[in-house]
């Protein structure tokens, strides 16, 4: 099993690497297209600005190999936080197009109740299980994960949503379309339950 973590300069790579490096897998972390091509699974993590992330992927010539991996070869890909948002077609953050792997857009949190709801959404919050999904094996309804984001994913296809979370309003915190998986929260920072989710992805 070869798993590749894409390093495009905007990820919590060290925390994620620690969570999975002791598994019986071959793990690579780089910005090299060849490591994507040779992988069995790819993880696209990230924290930061959407347009800057897309610019980085473009400058590193990683968009074409990622598209081939996810859309042509249809191998499993996991997007985490910004990595999930990049899979959408468009983001309000930087008025930028994304990879366009899933029919979704990225919206900014807004609220009139600024004393109660701070943006970014930071800290622990619960997830609900919207649809059955392999990533959710042995994870309970209302399990808590760690979040850190100002933007959220909006999709018109509820069948693809397997997690929802409430902050200001209900939003998609887990999505799956065929071989493409995305979570808004950070499993690498979510202790035991995050480890279970990453193990589930590894075992797909």
Keywords:
204 residues, alpha/beta, Rossmann fold, 8-stranded mixed β-sheet, 4-stranded mixed β-sheet, 14 strands, 32% strand, globular
Write the layout of secondary structure elements.
Layout: E1 2-6, H1 13-20, E2 26-30, H2 33-37, E3 41-44, H3 50-59, H4 63-72, E4 77-80, H5 82-85, E5 90-91, E6 96-97, E7 104-108, E8 121-126, E9 128-129, E10 144-149, E11 151-155, E12 161-167, E13 169-177, E14 180-183, H6 191-202
Parallel strand pairs: 1-2, 1-3, 3-4, 4-14, 5-7
Antiparallel strand pairs: 5-6, 7-11, 8-10, 9-12, 12-13, 13-14
Account of the 3D structure:
By secondary structure, this protein is of the alpha/beta class. It is 24% helix and 32% strand. An 8-stranded mixed sheet has the order 2-1-3-4-14-13-12-9. Strands 6-5-7-11 form a 4-stranded mixed sheet, covered by helices on one side. A two-stranded antiparallel sheet has the order 8-10. The longest helix is centred in the C-terminal third of the chain and has 12 residues, at 191-202. The termini are close together.
CATH class: Alpha Beta
Helix content: 10-25%
Given the structure, what is the number of helices? 6
In terms of quaternary structure, the protein is single chain
How many domains? The number is 1
Within CATH, the superfamily carries the name: Class I glutamine amidotransferase (GATase) domain
The main sheet orders its strands as 2-1-3-4-14-13-12-9
Overall outline: globular
The span between the termini is 11 Å
| Biggest sheet descriptor | 8 strands, mixed
- Rg from Cα: 16 Å
Predict the CATH topology. Answer: Rossmann fold
Count the E strands. 14
| CATH architecture term | 3-Layer(aba) Sandwich
User: Which parts are unreliable, with pLDDT below 50 for 5 consecutive residues or more?
Assistant: none
- The sequence of SSEs as H and E is EHEHEHHEHEEEEEEEEEEH
Instruction: Quote the average pLDDT.
Output: 95
DSSP strand content: 25-35%
The helix-and-strand class reads: alpha/beta
């Amino acid at each position: 099993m070869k798993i590749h973590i894409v390093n495009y300069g905007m990820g919590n790579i060290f925390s994620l690497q620690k969570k999975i490096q002791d598994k019986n897998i071959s793990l690579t972390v780089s910005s090299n297209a060849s490591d994507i091509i040779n992988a069995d699974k790819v993880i696209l993590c990230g924290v930061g600005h959407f347009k800057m992330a897309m610019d980085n992927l473009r400058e590193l010539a990683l968009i074409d190999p990622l598209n081939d991996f996810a859309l042509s070869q249809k191998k499993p890909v996991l997007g985490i936080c910004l990595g999930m948002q990049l899979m959408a077609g468009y983001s309000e953050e930087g008025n930028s197009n994304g990879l366009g792997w899933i029919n979704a857009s990225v919206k900014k949190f807004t609220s009139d109740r600024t004393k109660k709801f701070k943006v970014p959404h930071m800290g622990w919050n619960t997830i609900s299980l919207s649809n059955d999904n392999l990533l959710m094996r042995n994870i309970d309804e209302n399990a808590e994960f760690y979040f850190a984001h100002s933007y959220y994913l909006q999709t018109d296809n509820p069948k693809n949503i397997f997690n929802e979370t409430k902050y200001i309003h209900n939003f998609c915190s887990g999505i799956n379309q065929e071989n493409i998986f995305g979570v808004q929260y950070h499993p690498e920072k979510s202790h035991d339950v995050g480890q279970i989710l990453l193990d589930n992805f590894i075992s797909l």
